[in-house]
Design goal:
Shape: globular
Number of helices: 26
Protein name: Glycosyltransferase family 39 protein
Distance between the termini: 50 Å
Order of helices and strands: HHHHHHHHHHHHHHHHHHHHHHHHHEHEEE
Organism: Fibrella rubiginis
Membrane topology: Multi-pass membrane protein
GO cellular component, one term: plasma membrane
Largest sheet: 4 strands, mixed
Number of strands: 4
Strand order of the largest sheet: 2-1-3-4
InterPro entries: LipidA_mod_glycosyltrf_83, RgtA/B/C-like
Oligomer: single chain
């Protein structure tokens, strides 16, 4: 059962400096251009819900839809909201998802305001906390400061972490909180492995002094699920680990009580009394909706490519998701390398691995002078790997990573052998469970629902910290490999750093569609821009006119109270002063421009032109 570290090496001054540099790099990547690009659809869901506002005005009839009332004002829009308003906003605007994050963001906005920088900075803080926790976990449970530092460096530059620290959504928070739960899980098992506790038959005496940790674990469990329901998979992995390795009733009782009390106190009320009761109904509707699209219109449906969940379709959809979980293989499944090139590269990689295995066997058998590596391996392995770069058919340097993949697999195998203490092995098994469980569940849901729509990177995001630690263990092993292996793989790693930083640069420039949703960079938040212009130019007697886009609901569920959309008016009012009494109304004669009509002259001043969907992200 125990996962007590093999050693608890303190940080030297040099290691502390390295860690501070890593954290500085992580912060720089997360803070740069934080508010340079406007909020997109999912962020809009979160922002309106955080203010107790339902998109399209279901709980704002008195503001927008009162008969005989032609105008509305920011003061009316921002009138105090009740708990029922927030509940309805989460249910209707964000399908009952992420109430923990939405509630926290609402409090955050009250203190720090609703600018794009402010609302996204909360994700930056959680992402920085994730880097720090990854260092602590890796350092403590491998017994190696170097593994901790390498893991932290990988986490600092992980493209998914960088991208979603720039998004006002629950992912960064849920990743951090579920990782914190894993830290608490291991610390509790550490404490229970103490000899003074293992012999205690009374489970409450054995858990004495641990109930604070159990309470923290229970809260982290509930908040993870209330951050995103798929966060549950982290705790399923914890349960699998308990079944595999823990034979201690004190642990079963402690974790059981923590989970039970958190479920009864936080989860049951949400899923039975509040907006959460609609979540599973909504998910069932979405499953049927996307299944219909997969069967009838898989390519041109407005939601992307949605295919029936056949084995080949699920495999093709899952391959880039699984590959991009790992820093080393990021981009290999999505770059256009060509089937012939992939076969060539993998064949060369397997040949390289074969050379290494034969050389190792000869050396162990005493068939080489002085037990040294044969010369042909020292020459052949670097030549084959580096020679890949010279093959004409290879379109880019990512192929070198693919060729080196079998050898990296061998290095990981050697790393597992090196971390030979049973506690370290158990820790690596736990990392594997935490890595695989969310992905397997995602594939199970795809087959169950009959479509591939949900196979997306963000739904496996809770696996990323553990993939990062596994990569840290692998890279650390290079320091113990023969030089002819470590040097050439270090060169491959340097090449990989270039591609990772290039991807991060595209993420920060908002032109990495997998991570940012957009291939063309967004402009600065158009709604905030419009609100600033209105505030600067409005004088008493003026009227603001908002465009009214005609709605075309696909079914009864999508129908709203009014046949025209009021989203542009709602989003702009989020950024207007709460006590302002500007006269505003909807203009059903046009769909794209916000106008300011001057009261004395009737002059029309263009505030913003959305140009159809161009700036409605």
């Amino acid at each position: 059962m125990p996962l007590r570290p093999s050693s608890n090496i303190p940080l030297s001054t040099r290691s502390l400096i390295v860690l501070l540099v890593i954290m500085a790099v992580a912060f720089a990547l997360r803070i740069y251009k934080l508010d340079a690009h406007g909020v997109y659809l999912d962020e809009k869901f979160t922002l309106v819900a955080s203010q107790g506002v339902v998109q399209e005005g279901s709980n704002q009839h008195d503001v927008f839809f009162t008969p005989g009332k032609p105008y509305f004002t920011p003061k009316e829009f921002h009138k105090p909201k009740r708990l029922a308003d927030y509940d309805e906003a989460i249910a209707r605007s964000d399908i009952s998802n992420s109430p923990a994050y939405t509630g926290l963001l609402s409090l955050w906005i009250r203190v720090f305001g609703i600018s794009d920088f402010s609302v996204r900075f909360l994700s930056v803080l959680f992402s920085m906390g994730t880097v720090w926790l990854i260092f602590l976990l890796a350092r403590r449970y491998t017994g190696s400061v170097r593994v901790g530092l390498i893991s932290a460096a990988v986490a600092a530059t992980e493209p998914f972490f960088v991208a979603y620290s720039h998004v006002a959504r629950a992912y960064s928070m849920t990743i951090f909180v579920s990782l914190l739960a894993t830290w608490l899980f291991l610390r509790i098992l550490d404490r229970l492995s103490d000899p003074t506790r293992t012999g205690e038959r009374n489970v409450f005496l054995a858990n004495k002094g641990l109930w604070g940790l159990y309470a923290g674990y229970g809260i982290a469990y509930a908040v993870s699920i209330l951050g995103h329901t798929l966060g549950l998979m982290v705790f399923v992995a914890h349960g699998l680990y308990l079944l595999l390795y823990v034979r201690n009733w004190s642990a079963y009782v402690g974790f059981g009580l923590a989970g039970l009390l958190a479920t009864l106190g936080l989860l049951v009320p949400w899923f039975t009394l509040y907006a959460g009761k609609y979540l599973f109904m909504t998910m069932a509707y979405q499953a049927q909706f996307y299944k219909h699209l997969a069967d009838t219109n898989p390519l041109n449906n407005g939601f992307g490519v949605i295919l029936p969940a056949t084995m080949p379709n699920v495999f093709n959809a899952a391959l880039p998701v699984v590959a991009d979980l790992f820093w080393l293989t990021n981009g290999l499944a999505s770059d256009t390398l060509g089937r012939r090139n992939v076969l060539i590269e993998l064949a060369i990689g397997l040949l390289v691995l074969g050379l290494v295995l034969v050389a190792e066997r000869q050396r162990r058998a005493g068939q080489t002078p002085y037990g040294q590596t044969p010369w042909w391996a020292k020459v052949g392995v670097p030549m084959l790997l580096l020679g890949v770069l010279l093959i004409v058919t290879i379109p880019n340097g990512q192929a070198m990573m693919l060729t080196a993949l079998p050898l990296f697999g061998y290095v990981l195998y050697k790393a597992v052998q090196y971390f030979g203490q049973i506690q370290q092995r158990h820790f690596l098994v736990l990392m594997g469970l935490l890595l695989l469980t969310p992905t397997f569940f995602l594939l199970f849901i795809a087959f169950r629902n009959g479509h591939t729509y949900g196979i997306t990177q963000r739904y496996t995001s809770f696996s990323f910290p553990y993939a990062v630690i596994i990569i840290g263990v692998l890279i650390d092993q290079l320091f113990r490999m023969d030089r002819y292996i470590s040097y050439v793989l270090a060169l491959v790693l340097l090449l990989k750093v270039y591609y990772i930083m290039d991807l991060n640069n595209r993420i920060l420039a908002d032109i990495a569609p997998k991570y940012t949703q957009f291939g063309v960079a967004r402009i600065k938040n158009p709604y905030m821009t419009a609100a600033d212009r209105i505030e600067q130019q409005y004088t008493p007697g003026d009227t603001v006119l908002y465009p009214a886009v005609r709605l075309h609901p696909a079914d009864e569920i999508e129908k709203t109270f009014w046949p025209f959309s009021i989203k542009d008016a709602q989003m702009t009012n989020l950024y207007l002063p709460h006590d302002a009494t500007y006269y505003q109304r909807m203009d059903t004669t046009q769909e794209n421009q916000i106008w300011l009509v001057k009261g004395r002259t009737g002059q029309r001043v263009l505030i913003f032109d959305f140009k159809g969907p161009t700036y409605r992200y």
